[in-house]
Amino acid sequence: MIIMNGDYFMVKKSLRLLLQTCIYGLFAVTTAGFLGKWLWILELTSHFRMQYVWIGIILLVYAIASKKYALISFATAAVCINLSLIAPLYMTKSAMAMPSSTLSIVSTNVEWGRADANQLGDFAAQHSADVIFMAEATQDLVNRIQTLHPEYSYAVYHPIDNKLGLALLSKDNPISEVELIWQQDAHRPLLRGDFQIHDQIITIIGLHPHPPTNARWANYRNTYFHDVETYVESIHNPIIMVGDFNTTSWSPYFTELEDQTDLHDSREGFGLSPSWPSWLPPFMRIPIDHALLSSSLVTQQHEVGPDVGSDHLPIFIKVGL
Question: Per the domain annotation, does 133 fall within a domain?
């Protein structure tokens, strides 16, 4: 196929314009993520930092090939900004003394009880998980897990609209101080359970706020986090806060939750652990299932589990007490 000079220059100009649009667009969404408190839809752009890095690297290669130095600068800036937000999760934390005991937890959203009880129970049992937390649980799923894995003999289940229940299952430790705290203005509850581990009590709090799919639900989620911050002030035990947070750690609201509760991200030193949606390849998923820990607790293991039939992958954490 022969392309005439006029056509060649038109194609070249179009490709250059496309490259410019992509690079400037990438830089725009990269910076927009920092403005999430101004407008709910801007906060959504903060959740795809790893994807921005991969896209930015590809665009940077094309910018270098085109020898357009302004485009090179913007592409490089976008990649560096996003990498600076991701890198801390891969940095190894300072070594700590060997803890005297541990508590291991599997946490997942079971998508209205659709998760496979056998697969989820097997994953928890293979990792010797002491506790299982489930969001969007049903009584039927709780019963099936206990039938297949009777070692999880202690269970607390609170139905919410039939398909949005919260559940805690425990293998060896009875669950005490059970509370289902309704965040009235947030329209979703949290579930609390205390566990006696040797000589100390550990409080596990399970969360599941609204997904920020519109302005109203985004406000519900943010109000939920604010209420959680207030509730945590009343707890004097070490805390493990788990669940489907419906946000990534790059959201300003997640950062505020960490700061106000004085909890730290259990993934630090273990990487991204993207968990949603389960049907996408890992580089396209985002990490919205979290575990936050009190400063006295340390993560010994953190990993994402296999597909168990839900749109979320389970996460497993082993915490040194």
Answer: yes
pLDDT tens string 211-248: 999 999 999 999 999 999 999 999 999 999 999 999 99
- Pairing of the two strands 176-183 and 298-304: unpaired
86 and 136 both lie in a single domain: no
Query: How does 86-105 read in b/e, with b if 16+ C-beta sit within 10 Å?
Result: beebeeeeeeeeeeeebbbb
Question: Helix 69-86 and helix 49-66: axis angle, to 10°?
Answer: 160
pTM, two decimal places: 0.93
The percentage of residues in the chain with a pLDDT greater than 90, rounded to a whole number, is: 85
Angle (nearest 5°) at CA 13 between 8 and 17: 150
Instruction: Give the tokens for residue 156.
Output: 């607390």
Cβ contacts of residue 291 below 8 Å, gap of 6+? 105, 107, 240, 241, 242, 265, 266, 267, 299, 302, 315, 317, 319
276 confidence band (pLDDT: 50, 70, 90): very high
Q: How far apart are CA 293 and CA 257, in angstroms?
A: 12
Partners of 170 in the beta sheet? Answer: 131, 154
Within a domain: residue 86?
Answer: yes
**Which CATH number goes with the domain that contains 240?**
3.60.10.10
What is the distance between the terminal CA atoms of the chain, rounded to a whole angstrom? 69
Is the pLDDT score of 1 beyond 50?
Answer: no
